[in-house]
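Task: sequence design from structure.
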């Protein structure tokens, strides 16, 4: 739990502020699929070729990176650097974009035109025009905004505000706040993910052992799913049938991670899968076949086959991996 708070209290990609892979082998690999792992301890992003499950590059970014996202076409990647108040961009265009105070999370609209960055220190969301890599809008939200998720149709962004325990709804066409959803302060919301049909949002907590379900048609909380452990990351399968929830089991000085598998139709836990130490985040491949878990405490990524719910590989990455995103070219 404490390690996840590094991201939210510093206060889900082709990412870098510095050099990019240049070899012919890496250039060819860019035509495939990659997992991009944000290493907050080493200020790098590890790039994993998901076909071979090997690290092909370690890319330097800004100070205290916290999250990454990739455009739908895979041409641009964005990583928030909480310690330097910037967003790093890499690939066909490399840039460093100044944003608000302590940028915490980033999400990209489905059309690939804009990136939404939460600024935990300034209680705002910066809107980046991806064509120009400039901030074109700044939206006031709640206190200490953390995770952000965008609906599949791109019309709304949902921002979790850690300090005010609310979920801000932003109309992306007008870049204005249209609703604020209250969440009990004791829940301490940390993560948000939206189903592929845009009908529901799943909200996790670092303090409560449950996950909230929000009906996005009415912006109201409709369900409460017991998980058993505090939550550190949520990914939903492309077909919308499963949610994969990363949490940490406290066992003395050891903090092993576990992935709970949620049946979305019944809203029940149907399985658990062990992961690495102090697991922090999870991402799923576009075909839904594998999930990648960032293991903060063991400096690894755990790869899980979703057909069998078994671990297929453990990959060493950089220091203190805190976030993971999947990019597809």
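Answer:
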């Amino acid at each position: 739990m404490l390690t996840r708070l590094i991201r939210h209290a510093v206060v889900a990609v082709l990412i870098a502020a510095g050099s990019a892979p240049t070899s012919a082998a890496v250039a060819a690999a860019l035509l495939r699929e990659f997992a991009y792992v944000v290493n907050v301890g080493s200020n790098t992003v590890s790039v994993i070729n998901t076909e071979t499950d090997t690290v092909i590059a370690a890319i330097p970014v800004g100070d205290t990176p916290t999250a990454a996202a990739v455009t739908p076409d895979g041409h641009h990647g964005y990583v928030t650097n909480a310690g330097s108040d910037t967003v790093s961009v890499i690939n066909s265009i490399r840039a460093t974009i100044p944003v608000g105070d302590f940028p915490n999370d980033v999400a990209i609209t489905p059309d690939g035109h804009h990136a939404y960055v939460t600024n935990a220190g300034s209680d705002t969301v910066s809107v980046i025009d991806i064509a120009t890599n400039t901030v074109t809008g700044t939206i006031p939200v709640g206190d200490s905004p953390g995770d952000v998720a965008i609906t599949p149709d791109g019309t709304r962004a949902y921002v979790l505000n850690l300090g005010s325990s609310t979920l801000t709804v932003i109309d992306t066409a007008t870049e204005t706040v249209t609703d604020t959803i209250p969440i009990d302060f004791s829940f301490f919301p940390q993560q948000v993910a939206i189903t592929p049909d845009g009908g529901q949002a799943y909200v996790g907590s670092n303090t409560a052992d449950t996950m909230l379900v929000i009906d996005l048609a009415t912006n109201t909380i409709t369900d409460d799913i017991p998980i058993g452990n505090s939550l550190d990351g949520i990914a939903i399968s492309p077909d919308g049938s499963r949610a994969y929830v990363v949490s940490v089991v406290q066992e003395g000085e050891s903090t092993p991670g576990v992935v709970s598998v949620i049946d979305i139709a019944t809203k029940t836990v149907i399985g658990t899968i062990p992961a690495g130490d102090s697991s922090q985040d999870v991402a799923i491949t576009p075909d839904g076949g594998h999930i990648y878990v960032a293991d903060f405490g063991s400096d690894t990524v755990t790869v899980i086959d979703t057909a069998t719910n078994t671990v297929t590989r453990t990959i060493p990455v950089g220091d203190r991996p805190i976030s993971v995103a999947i990019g597809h070219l």
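The two ends are 34 Å apart (CA to CA).
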